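Weekly sync notes, structure subgroup
Attendees: PM, AL, DS (notes)

Item 1: joint prediction request from the bench team. They want all two components modeled as one assembly rather than separately. Inputs as received:
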Amino acid sequence: MSEEIFVSGRNIPNIDPVLHIWHWQIPVYLFLGGLAAGLMFFSAFNYLRGRENKHEVTVKWASFIVPIALVLGLIALFLDLKHQLYFWRLYTTIRFDSPMSWGAWTLMAITPLSFLWCFSYLREFVSAFSGKKKWIDKALNFTMNIVFKFKWVATFEAYVIKNRKAMAWANVILSFILGIYTGILLSAFNARPLWNSSILGPLFLVSGLSTAAALIMWLTKDKDERKLFGQIDLLLIGLELFLITHMFMGFLAGSQVKIEAAQLFLGGEFTAAFWTFVVGIGLVIPAIFEIMKLRGYKIPVALPAMLILIGGLIFRFIMVDAGQITRFLY
Amino acid sequence: MRYAMAIDTKKCVGCSDCVVACQTENNVPIGFCRDWVVERVDGTYPDLELEYRSERCNHCENTPCVRTCPTGASTIIEGGIVKVVKGKCIGCGACIQACPYDARYFHPKGYVDKCTFCDHRVKTGLNPACVAVCPTNCMYFGDLDDPNSTIVNTLKKRKYKVLAAEAGTKPQIFYLI
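Output from the run, pasted for the record:
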C-alpha cells in the first residue's frame, strides 16, 4: 500500500486536487470550430466538384453559418484566456511546435476567407431569401445598403467572384487543418494520457464533418441533397464509432496511465455520460434513424440532425473534462 | 551550463521551510506555491517506509511546456532554466496542461507563474532560496556540466530517481534514495 499527501499544504484553485483550468469555453470552441470546418469543407469541396447549383444549401447558404460560428468560437477562446490583454502576442510569432500557434494562424486565415466566401454569395443570398417576410426583407435591405455603400465594393465583389476557385481550394485545405487541429490541440499534451493519442486528430475531424453534414441535411429542402448528406453522415458515424473503438483499444494496450484513462469510460465516472449521450444518443440512435429514413420510413430530419449536433457538443465537453483528470502518477 | 538539483529524501524532514522561503523570496501570492512537500508512505503497519520529497518545476531537458506554448512566453534561459516571460504570456493554459508535474499555475494577475530556480539569486552566485534555508542541508544545487561540483559528485556516489521518467521529459531534479 502506498499513500501520498501534500504536507506543506497545497490547494491551488483549479489545479488541486484535479486539474480543471479549461472550462466551457474550450469544448464550445472545439465544437464550433469543428462545425465551421465541416461546413466550409463541404461547401468548398462541392463547389470544386461543380455542384454549385445542384447543392445550393451546401455550397451557398450553409456557408453563411461558418463566419458566425468562427466568430463565436473566437469569442469563446478569448474568454478562456487569463491574460487577455496580451492575446495579440499570438500573432507576433509563429511556433511550429505548438498546435495552438498553428490553430491561431489557421483561424487568422480562414475567418476572413469565410467572410469573403459568403460575401461572394451575398447578392444571391438576398435574392433567394427576400420576398418571404417583411422583416426579413428589411434586414436584408439594411445589410445590402451597408455592405455596398461604397462604389469600390462592387468592383471588389466582381474580383472575389472571379477568384472563387482559388478561394475554394484554400478553404478546402484550411478547413481540413482547422478540423483536425481541434483534435491535435489536445493530443499534443503528453501529460494528459487521455488526450495523448494520435487518434484524437482524425476523430475530432470526423466528428466535426459529421455535425456539419447533419446541419446541412437539416437545412436543405432538396431531396437529393438531403439523401446524399444522410448517406455521408451515416458513413462518418460508422467511421467515428470505429475510431472510438480503436482509441480505447490503443489505451487498453498502453501503459498504466493510459489504461487508467480508458477506465474512466469503462466503469469510471464518465461511463454513463459517454456511452449514453455520445455513443447512444449522439451516434447509434441517429444512425438507426438515418437507416430507417433511407429505407423509406417517415422520420422528421430534425431528429437525427439535432441528436448528432448535441452528441458532438457533449463529446467535446466530456473529452476536455475527462482529459484534465488523467495524469502521470509517481 | 546545466543547472540541476539533487534532493536527499533521507535527510529531508518535511518541515516546509523551502516552501515558505520561496513564497517570501519570490512574492508568491497568498494561496499559491511554487514548491511543495509530499509525504509518501509505503507498506502496511508495522512495516512502513516514509519518504519526504520537496517538489517543484523539474526544469526538464525535454520541455512539453515550452513546446506547446503558442507565443514563446515559456522559454529556456541560460543554464537550462525554464522561465515564463510575463509580457508574452496570454494565459491560455497550454503549458499547465502540458506539465506532468502540475508545477505551473495562473498567477491572480493572469499570467502563468512557476519556479525559476531563483535565477535572480543564481546569477549572483547564490543558491536558490529553498536550498539556502534548508535546515538539514538536504538539497544540492549546481551545474551538471562542472565535473567538480557537489551535485555531480553526489549523483556519482548515491542512488537516485527522477519523477515520472516515463513522461519522457528528462527532469533535472534528482531525488537521492
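Discussion: Chain A has one domain: 25-325.
Action: AL to compare against the crosslinking data before next sync.
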